[in-house]
What does this fold into?
Amino acid sequence: MKNCDICERDDFSLIATRIREGEGRIVRCNNCGLVMQEADWDSKRLKEYYEIEYQLSNSLVTGKEQSAQEHFNDRIRTIRSVFEKVYPLLDPESRVLEIGCGAGELLSLISPHVSKCVGVEMNSSFVEFIRSNLSIEAYAEDINKLSLEGGFDLIICIATLDHLPNPLETLITMKKLLAPSGKIYIEVPNLDEALNRFLPKGNSERYKEFFWHRAHLFYFDRDTIEALFKKAGFLCDVSCRHEYTLKNFMHWYYLGKPQTDFVTGVTGNEFFSGETQFETRMNGIFNEMESVFKKIMAETFSGDNLCCVGHLDPDRQ
Ligand SMILES: [Zn+2]
It folds into this structure.
């Protein structure tokens, strides 16, 4: 196994042997705390996985391989919370690159506000969709192998850096592609999210097994993502947001299992169909609680995503 990506030591403890898909090995660096999956992924394997397997095993609608259009339609319903974090970083003159852009959902929202958008995504059917339906420049290639003209004012990478076997190399690639005053906006799952810490025993174990995931090669907390940024030559501000609903949290808390799929987990916060006054008013309670819940999750860094705005460290250039 390779050495730790942050501190370069070779001193790990095995912390889990069961992952969502069955057997797996999750280790933690005893020196810096970085958590990673022991897995042997090269560029070819990565390409094959995201071209074929990922869309079967990780569709937004469980058990259904979605077309690019279907993926786009579902993800666009939930991407607005990401767009709200990105929007303050946009300028009409900005050149924006998104790495791991899916079917272009976020870029489609960004595009009207900037001068140029470019997307990079492993899945070539998604890239075809982006080119033909969104008229946005896009490439189906590993960002570390692609020769792109640099000078981007903003580079975005959502729920992707933790999927890559070489996150440090990818951050350094971003550095090369960034304009001197440019910024990067990165989101990764939060290892310290509330679901990982505050479920009753038993259900907590079941959540952890679900949390460790074949596709997620690295698991960051606030300290380790900051350390990785620093190593790549970036200073960063980290904030937190929570994508899943309070209902999803309660589902895990009481039942110890996931909801049917991603879209249900992030959009359906109501408990009743709402046909009677009782149901409508009860749903009202949950709608009111939802925004308070999201605020608590963000402010206590217990949400499911860490949101990092990075810029080049002037002392490291
Ligand atoms: Zn380490």
Observations:
- The chain has two domains: 41-244+304-316, 246-296.
- The mean pLDDT is 92.
